[in-house]
Amino acid sequence: MPKRKLILAATLAIAVLGILAGLALADPASQPSPATPADIAAGGKLYDKWWKAAPGAAEPKGDHPLWSTQTTNTRTGLDTWRCKECHGWDYLGKDGAYGSGSHKTGFVGVSEAGNSKTADQLVAILKGSSNPKHDFSAQIDNASLTKLAAFLKEGLYDTKAVVDYATKKPKNADGAAGQRLFSGSCAACHGADGTKLNFGTEQEPEYVGTVAADNPQEFLHKVRNGQPGQAMPSGAELGWTVQDEVNVLAFAQTLPAKAATTLPKTGETSQPLLFLALVGLGLVTAGWAARRALARWTR
């Protein structure tokens, strides 16, 4: 075959391969599906407490293998396995709200990795590519790891831009707009004043207002992603923006951090309240008996 024809044939072959490659790239069926708001919210719940959010996951035993590399946070057991305990509710680790205090570990945050890594690279890191002691593949199924990576890639935002860390107050928030959102989506379960559910104990109750005042970063994370193991709607799935969630935070900080009368933890009975009720019933019964006896004496 003449040299000119060989060159022409090679050129045509390269062109055909290029066209086929372009078609493959353009074919939606050949591309991974983009993460949905539900996927991202599911990843946020995994970041919070993955054994409550990953299908079939069991509670981990002992401390996380990397926990012994730090000495400032004295928590043990399940807490050491929570992503948020190492990397913070604000995703900034040692550079954020958990850079000091009892939660301090010195571990880096996840924001930089979320911004610089691909979703596949993040999954690989979760499987131990960067550090074998950071391998979660034995505890968390692949689909859940993909959702966690989607959250890290698409669900993070700059909390310092919306919360004043010194005062714990939201920036540029509209509490009235937050009240409307809270009334429409949250009050049915939490009550109009946020004290219908007690997240703490009878002795140390914790309500919506408590979390909003004490840990606004946690509040925003849970509003955006939901509560692991609970049927709590997530702001991401409701179509709320970060500004919507900040507005809800502003309203929630006006709610009582403590109930007027200490209420028992949801689903439990308060022994002191029961005792007082029984005493009151006894006094009423005794009074009734005394009146009857007096009436017989005066006949």
Quick overview of this protein structure:
This protein has 299 residues and is an all-alpha fold. Helix content is 49%, strand content 1%.
Overview of the structural elements:
The protein has helices at residues 3-26, 37-53, 83-87, 111-116, 119-126, 142-154, 175-185, 187-190, 208-214, 216-225, 235-238, 242-252, 271-297; strands at 163-164, 169-170. It is an all-alpha fold. The protein has 2 domains: 37-156, no CATH class; 167-292, Cytochrome c-like domain (Cytochrome Bc1 Complex, Chain D, domain 2), CATH 1.10.760. It starts with a helix and ends with a helix. The model is unreliable at 15-21, 23-30, 265-271 and 273-281 (pLDDT under 50).
- Look at the structure and give the CATH class of the largest domain: Mainly Alpha
Helix content: 40-55%
Question: Got a strand count?
Answer: 2
Sequence of strands across the biggest β-sheet:
1-2
Q: Number of helix segments?
A: 13
Mean pLDDT equals: 85
Run of helices and strands: HHHHHHEEHHHHHHH
Largest sheet features: 2 strands, antiparallel
